[in-house]
Design a protein that fits this description.
Layout lengths: L2 E2 L5 E2 L1 H7 L16 H14 L1 H4 L6 H5 L2 H5 L3 H6 L6 H4 L7 E5 L5 H10 L4 E6 L2 H14 L4 E5 L12 E7 L8 H11 E14 L5 H4 L2 H5 L6 E2 H10 L3 E10 L11 E9 L3
Helix pairs in contact: 2-9, 10-13
Length: 275
């Protein structure tokens, strides 16, 4: 009997299992995952639990997007939990003493790299909605002996952070998972100090994806089903109040069997809150 997926379309329990891997994935039904948010939380909770095993994989995101020097500064579990599509902190130019906030911080990879750049006088805040990822990030923080990072439970659509309190916001392949992207950009604008900026890596598309892809739970949790058209993504940023929007990197993702996958782009973009 098919189950109702987070977007209201009928799929099999087996499809849920394939998109949300974990020991109990075969038991997943719409009663457990009644929204995209819950599907994403389940998927990345499972990812946190398998970080050690993934660290041994030859196709980790951390191997693709991070330099050898950056990887050597991390624990294996941090590298294994990475699911990003870029290296925003590598080009964000975080400065000593700044406050950096990472949206969807996961196992902490970008937070730990940012902490090295802002130094003892700076602060790094990681926000994630997945308790398992927060536990992993805090364990990694203890292993790396970092003292200038705090990890908080929260949603990127309602960031638990004061207005005008952050110099730099980073995020790595997370906003594509949100159904309320305009709200996310408004929240980023709210928490940034005047003159502050964001550097975000995310998945976007050249033009709209087929409707069946946009309604697929499997594609949503893989940062694909919710990917916005790039021009609309940039328009949302401008509508939130940002200025000097600049595309820093734009890479076509590896194509797959389906022709629509050639539309996918790994984008890294920067914008500023006017001083």
């Amino acid at each position: 009997m098919p189950e109702l997926n987070p977007l209201g379309t009928l799929i099999s329990t087996a499809e849920f299992a394939s998109c949300c891997s974990g020991e109990d994935s075969a038991e997943i039904t719409h009663a457990h995952l009644d929204s995209i948010t819950e599907a994403v939380r389940h998927r990345y909770g499972a990812l946190a639990k398998t970080a050690v095993e993934r660290a041994l994989s030859s196709d980790k995101a951390s191997d693709t997007f991070y330099t050898e020097e950056q990887r050597h500064a991390l624990t294996d579990e941090t590298a294994g939990a990475s699911a990003g599509c870029g290296n925003p902190v590598g080009i964000a130019d975080a400065k000593p003493g700044e406050t950096v906030l990472d949206l969807g911080s996961g196992g902490g990879i970008d937070c730990f790299l940012a902490a090295r750049e802002v130094g003892e006088t700076g602060h790094v805040i990681g926000i994630d909605m997945t308790p398992e990822m927060l536990t992993l990030a805090r364990e990694n923080s203890d292993k790396l002996l970092t003292e200038n990072i705090v990890f908080k439970l929260g949603h990127i659509e309602s960031i638990p952070q004061a207005d005008n309190s952050v110099d730099l916001v980073i995020s790595n392949c997370v906003i594509a998972l949100s159904e309320k992207k305009s709200r996310v950009f408004s929240e980023i604008f709210r928490i940034l100090k005047p003159g502050g900026r964001f550097v975000i890596s995310d998945v976007v598309t050249e033009k709209p994806l087929p409707m069946d892809v946009r309604k697929s739970a499997a594609e949503w949790v893989d940062c694909v089903g919710g990917a916005a058209v790039m021009s609309e993504y940039i328009e949302m940023i401008a509508e939130a109040g940002f200025v000097d929007v600049d595309v820093l990197e734009k890479r076509t993702r590896s194509s797959g069997a389906e022709s629509w996958r050639d539309l996918l782009i790994n984008l890294t973009i920067r914008a500023f809150k006017k001083a």
